[in-house]
Amino acid sequence: MKKWDIIKTIIYPIFAIIIFIFHESFIGYLSYLVSSIMLLYSIEGIIKSIIKRDLLIHMTSFYGDFLVFILGLVLLIFINDETQFESVAVIWGTWVILRESKELFEATETIFKKGYGLFNISESIIVIVYSILLIINPVEHHVHAHIILLGIELILDVLFPIINKRIEISINRIKEKRNQKL
User: Fold this and answer.
1) Are 38 and 75 in contact (CB under 8 A)?
2) Residue 69, pLDDT above cutoff 90
3) For labelling alongside 112, which of 2, 101, 141, 171 has CA 20 to 30 A away?
4) 105 to each of 11, 89, 112, how far by Cα in Å?
5) CB of 62 within 8 A of CB of 55?
């Protein structure tokens, strides 16, 4: 898994920079952008499930990722016409809400167990609100904002684990110092 984390730490910011530079150009190729991201996330989830051998324990995660993979393929192969712009936006918004709700649950669990994770929760809530707007009104303005948000989210996917690890190390050091004083 460490190799994937290193690869992800390099690839995600590169994708984010490409998105920031060419964000206006992606509107015409929305189905390709969304399907690529869906395929990337689903393949990562499937590989993690296989490596961790979670197939029997967490089947819903594996099958959820597998269904997202199928949906990403459908978007990539069948929905690439500009006239189906709204369909892509609604599928994207729905998928992001489902994905962020899982991350919101994990962040809430982290807060209760370890005492940190507020940044993760706030990011998930903001993304869910933007996704709801995207579903309710799938116009170019909301899609454009969501594309920018996607670039930010790719960077945060790399930064949050690093930040959380640093916070965890700091909390553990503080606890050790308190235990030594007692």
Assistant:
1) yes
2) yes
3) 2
4) 26, 24, 11
5) yes
> Minimal CA–CA distance to 146: which of 155, 160, 156, 135?
135
Reported as type and span, the H/E element at residue 11 is helix 2-22
Cβ contacts of residue 178 below 8 Å, gap of 6+? none
Angle 115-117-122 (CA atoms, 0-180°, nearest 5)?
140
Helix axes 85-114, 118-136, angle to 10 degrees: 160
pLDDT tens digit string along 112-135?
887 777 777 888 888 888 889 888
Distances (CA, A) of 23 to 15, 30, 108: 11, 10, 32
For residues 160 and 100, what is the distance between their CA atoms, to the nearest angstrom? Answer: 14
Across residues 27-53, what is the average pLDDT? 83
Among 16, 14, 10, CA closest to 151: 16
Distance (Å, rounded) from C-alpha 126 to C-alpha 118?
Answer: 12
Q: How far apart are CA 94 and CA 71, in angstroms?
A: 12
Q: How far apart are CA 83 and CA 85, in angstroms?
A: 6
